[in-house]
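Bug report

Summary: structure tokens for Signal recognition particle protein differ between web form and batch submission.
Environment: batch mode, default settings.
Steps: 1) Submit the sequence below via batch. 2) Compare with the web form result.

Sequence submitted:
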Amino acid sequence: MLDNLTNRFGSVLKNIRGQAKLTEDNIKEALREVRLALLEADVALPIVKDFVNKVKEQALGQEITGSLTPDQAFIGIVNDALVDLMGKENSSLDLATAPPAVILMAGLQGAGKTTTVGKLSRLLKTNQKKKILVVSADVYRPAAIEQLRLLAEQVGVDFFPSDTQQKPVDIAKTAVDYAKKHFYDVLMVDTAGRLAIDEEMMNEIKALHAAVHPIETLFVVDAMLGQDAVNTAQAFNEALPLTGVILTKMDGDSRGGAALSVRQVTGKPIKFIGIGEKINGLEPFYPDRIASRILGMGDVLSLIEDVQKGIDEEAATKMAKKLHKGKGFDLNDFKEQIQQMRNMGGLESLMSKMPGELGQLSKQIPEGTAEKAMGHVEAIINSMTPKERANPALLKASRKRRIAQGSGTSVQEVNKMLKQFEQSQQMMKMFSGKGMAKLMRMAKGMKGMKGMFPGM
């Protein structure tokens, strides 16, 4: 996410290192690089000018305390300016109304609007335990209606049927009545997009807004459009009383400066960001965490949340009891670990949020490589008999050949997987007996970290 911007800021901060103090001379080049980095990311020129002037003013007036180096002080100033630019804090959805709380989704065609309806439905169902109904008012694309039906089925929310012969306003009104009668907490209305802003589209969505009185009107926009994303958001904001923005394709990074511009230009908060195609690829937008990622400091807070959400406490307790009794860590447990990693968003997602070199390393791994490797491991374990999974010592040459053939892999890959398993097994032995008490203390400590950070 925003890798180009992160790399440019990284080189800026390297040039500040080693200076005795921040002066107009030594920050001049740094500010020039900051300006170029923001313009390359397609941040609007007036916003870039204001940002650079603000950083310069604060840097020159900064009293550096004894414990801070000049580069650390400069990072702090830039970090605060980025957070301020993006809106200071997360703005959550307002669902405080007589149910159903109607959420109207608006945006251009191709922005990922329908997919975002599915992702947001999943988020509200999983995190807030809401009863969700979704409906498509896109009567121009039958495929959009079918796509939403399939997404609803995938995330386990209800779908209200519609077809291309109906009028969008009639569809929405009927869905609201149905949602009221069947006690839904939230109704999400997907609307038609166009390839460009036009009067007909704007009139249609205004009529929809007037018909359903949404508590949230969210504009979904492709972050890779750069400045065009901001201009489009501004046009929709003038036509509709938007309550927030969702930026999709934030992992594309071609011109992710929309994240830095859209709040300033529209005055409306970015509420969520979409990352990747997976149905769990939607995150609340925290300006402080995004600023931290841009400056190469990782996103430890989101990392902790991902880990906590991914851990199955019942399975963890069962594992703890098993290890405490001295029973071995077997391949069934190893497979369970992989599944929990998937629940946390996958290895690549977790690594990208880590600070320092690990976070940088994630950018060098081709997308999907780690996920593919985990899939191979699961396939190998699935090709074993229950006895082999419980007792890996049985796995001799002939069995390995059979497993490789059954999983569509090679004997070398089976051996590599077993080596990885042995390393995990050694680590888990550390936590058997008294070591388990240490593990539980570590887990509690991790949960306690939440209180150390604002915004959690």
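Above is the batch result. After comparison, the two runs are identical; trailing whitespace caused the diff. The first helix runs from residue 3 to 16. The two ends are 21 Å apart (CA to CA).
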